[in-house]
Design goal:
The chain is mainly alpha-helical and about 250 residues long. Helix content is about 55%, strand content about 0%. The radius of gyration is 19 Å and the shape is globular. The structure holds iron/sulfur cluster. Iron/sulfur cluster binds next to α11.
Amino acid sequence: MKSIAEKANGEEVYKRLEQGLNPDWREYVVLVADKLDGDKHPFAVLAAIILSQNTSDKNSIKAYYQLREAIGVSPEAILEAPLDKLVEAIRPAGLPNQKARSLKEAAKRILEAGGEHILLEMPWEKLREFLLTIPGVGEKTADVFLSVKRRAPVFAVDTHAMRIAKRWGLVPPNAGYREVSRALLEFFGPEKSEEAHRLIIALGRRYCRARNPLCNECPLRDICPKIGVKEAERKRPAMPRQLSSRG
Ligand code: SF4
């Protein structure tokens, strides 16, 4: 299988992505939550990740601000809030009933386990197991939290990372979460995993879209094996810069 690793190592790819994409932290709900509230309330970061499931950062950022304003982002505030008020506050993130239940359950479990400081103090492997027992918290949610708040050696895999690792040829087309996560962690190295995760999201939004990827404009066009991207799509004429907006 062809792989991007034959032409460049993780450091080189990281550098190209960083220079070519220059992402802004205000576009990521997780970083918005961490910058605003993460020091005082590590739970806020977990709440933001739950809000971001199956929606855009734009929608989840709106929901996060509303949650912060109407209820607060501590586990105590979320557990005490009336369910209908919580649902209303987070509505812009979509699936508000489901996400409100997940937020309440996460708040309850974390308070029962001793309070939100456990999110910063429990050994990260044990914390990962604990987080995965919370309904609505899957591997991606747990790994995003662990990489942002604990700098743990994990690589969070969302739909962009899943698609891109396969197009890069780092994993076979049928690889699952664990395999993709391990391959990306190994490729970029554990120190860079959090930032690389964000760069991959930016790459997926701007160039390496699920449909009609903009290979002709992509900063990796000369080193990427483009596995699974149809020839016709690869050769699409480049769009004028102002039209190549984020998807
Ligand atoms: S847009 Fe094309 S060249 Fe860029 S990473 Fe995706 S498949 Fe590779």
